[in-house]
Design goal:
Number of strands: 0
Radius of gyration: 28 Å
Helix content: over 70%
Distance between the termini: 68 Å
Number of domains: 1
Order of helices and strands: HHHH
Shape: rod-shaped
Strand content: under 5%
């Protein structure tokens, strides 16, 4: 009888130990998977921020070149380096759909100012009033693009903080009183 008791005790101990090991491995796997997901999300939102800066610079350069072409009476020579709108749309649609309105606004501004850019692609003599109107559209386009790109970058940072559970404005250094 005593031998059975010892055997059952050993088997129960092995079974409980196995269950604890399985549970520990599952917890570790879930923790690793969450860490990798958070890391990927951080990388993609950082890429969105970099693309946002690139988009802003390229639009501002394009509009600045358009102003120079208008004032010089020359044909606008668009750059060969494309503006990465398709890339940022893909990233946002997949990783941060809550940022979609910002990209749509950038595209709307591009489309509105794009008609003026198309007008400058054809070299022709323009009156002072026409040149001023075109230049005003380009300067306004630069401001609107810069503002919206800034809004997108800020929204991406807030999205990352929210998704990663980081309290906005709080830090451990100030005791969470930020």
């Amino acid at each position: 009888m005593n031998a059975w008791h010892d055997t059952i005790t050993v088997l129960l101990g092995v079974g409980i130990g196995g269950l604890i090991t399985i549970f520990g491995a599952k917890v570790q796997f879930d923790r690793d998977r969450k860490w990798q997901r958070d890391r990927l999300l951080q990388e993609k939102l950082l890429e969105v921020a970099k693309l946002t800066e690139d988009i802003q610079q390229k639009f501002c350069k394009l509009y600045g070149d358009a102003i120079s072409a208008v004032e010089g009476g020359q044909k606008l020579q668009p750059g060969s380096d494309p503006i990465p709108l398709a890339r940022i749309k893909i990233l946002i649609n997949f990783y941060a759909p809550e940022l979609r309105p910002h990209v749509e606004q950038i595209i709307k501004i591009r489309d509105e100012v794009g008609t003026s850019v198309a007008d400058v692609l054809l070299p022709r003599v323009r009156s002072q009033t026409e040149r001023q109107e075109l230049n005003l559209r380009f300067v306004l386009g630069m401001k609107l693009i810069s503002d919206e790109c800034g809004n997108l970058a800020e929204a991406a940072a807030q999205s990352a903080q929210h998704r990663l559970g980081i309290a906005i404005g709080n830090s451990e250094a100030d005791g969470g009183k930020g």
